[in-house]
Amino acid sequence: VNAADREVIRAVRRGDREAFGLLVQRYQGRLFGLAFMIVRDQAGAEDVTQDAFVRAYTRLDHYDDRRPFYPWLATIAVRLSQNRLRSRVARREDPPPDTTEPGVRPVALDLLMDDERGRALWRAVAALPSGERTAVMLYYRDELSIGDAARVLGVTSGTVKTLLFRARRHLREHFEQTAIDPGEIRR
Amino acid sequence: MTCAHALALIDVAPFADYPQAEVEAAWDHARQCGACRRSLDTAEAVAAGLPSLRAPAAAPDLTTAVLARIAEANAAPARARQAPTAAARTATRSDRWWGWATSAGVVAVVVSAVLSKHSVDAWFTSVVTPRFGWFDGTLDAGPSMTTPMILLAAGLTLYVSGLFGPLKRPHA
User: Fold this and answer.
1) Ranges of H-type helices in chain B
2) Chain A contacts of B69, Cβ < 8 Å?
3) Among A34, A159, A182, B38, which one has the highest count of C-beta atoms within 10 angstroms of its own C-beta?
């Protein structure tokens, strides 16, 4: 467990509400990226990120501080994102046009990404099926273990391994079909 | 080993316990096969790129927005404790009136019982006993039972209303 996180959480539990801002600053980038990858629209990802932090704050008593904080926070964000996707389907809303298809120019993404590098890979990951792209984010970008990623997703470790294997195969096939130079992916 | 088998093994190897020799054979095949070479380069590039996957930047005022919402969340229960809603106030007032009605009904019934006892005693004392020395079953004019009866009816009405009145209120 991150000692700094533990200190901050103890301070928040003692009533220091402002201390929670340190956790928000520390994890907002990772959490927003995760939510953005699942819901695939900026406004939705911001809502999910805010909701996840507020829910984490109000339910901090349920957090077991012997475990790392981020996977617990990510679990909340993934649940909220999935709920958002489900309600979008229930309302029969179309998914956001950007980043859904590999060939579609992701306008919002271009505005959000601070540089050109990494966009090709990001777009390809964003075009993966929901479970695969979430597993990729948790395992590769957030550096969670297979076990932690499984807990966040609410599935078994075997399922996470399958999702990651399929994601890598889909990404390889995608880049082969679009004839993007491997050097562009690696950068 | 076929190209498809070799590439599938390379993709799955990080997440499965395949015999090392079989995985190495797949890599050897992919390195030497012209058809697999590009796929292998792409697979390696994907594997190298994923850990440094860049995420879009979050809004700069996200921390402020979250803290503001937390302050709101903290304030809401406190407000609820301090100031009941208009509906809750109305409900409380209404409950109090029904409570008073029930109590008033009980008091009225008790008073009516006391009065009626006094009336019957007085009637025996003032009418029956002096005249006959005993009661022959014929009632003569004596102290009125009207007031106790009215009080009894009113008391029972108030009591029953007080008991069942609150049940008629629709739930919010």
Assistant:
1) 3-12, 20-32, 34-49, 62-82, 86-123, 129-132, 146-164
2) 50, 54
3) A34
pLDDT value at residue B129: 65
Q: Check if the beta carbon of residue A34 is closer than 8 Å to that of residue A137.
A: yes
Q: How many CB atoms lie within 10 A of CB A102?
A: 16
Please, which residues have CB within 8 angstroms of residue B122's CB and are 6 or more apart in sequence?
B142, B143
Distance from CA of B85 to the nearest CA of A (A): 23
Choose the closest CB to A125 out of B51, B53, B56: B53
**Residue A118 forms contact with B (CB below 8 Å):** yes
Q: What ipTM, to 2 d.p.?
A: 0.74
Rg for chain B (alpha carbons), in Å? 46
Taking contacts as CB-CB distances below 8 angstroms, the residues of chain A near B44 are: 182
Residue written as token pair 């996470």: A160
The dihedrals phi and psi of B169, each to the nearest 5 degrees, come to -70, 130
Shortest alpha-carbon distance between residue B60 and chain A (Å): 10
Q: Determine contact, residues B55/B39, Cβ cutoff 8 Å.
A: no
Q: Tell me the C-alpha distance between B165 and B158, whole Å.
A: 10
Nearest alpha-carbon partner for A2 in A75, A67, A53, A58: A67
- The tokens for A7 are 């200190």
**Residues A173, B35 contacting (CB under 8 angstroms):** no
The tokens describing A155, both together, are: 């599935």
Q: Quick one: which of B73, B70, B54 has its CA closest to A24?
A: B70
Q: List per-residue pLDDT tens for chain B, 172 residues long.
A: 788 888 888 888 888 888 888 888 988 898 888 888 888 888 888 888 888 887 777 788 888 888 888 888 877 766 655 555 555 555 566 677 788 888 888 888 888 888 877 777 776 676 666 665 655 555 555 557 778 888 888 888 888 888 777 665 544 3
Rounded to whole angstroms, what are the CA distances from A162 to A168, A184, B44, B46? 10, 26, 18, 17
Size of interface A-B (CB pairs under 8 A): 143
Q: What are phi and psi of A145, to 5 degrees?
A: -70, 165
Q: Does residue B68 sit at the A interface (CB-CB below 8 Å)?
A: no
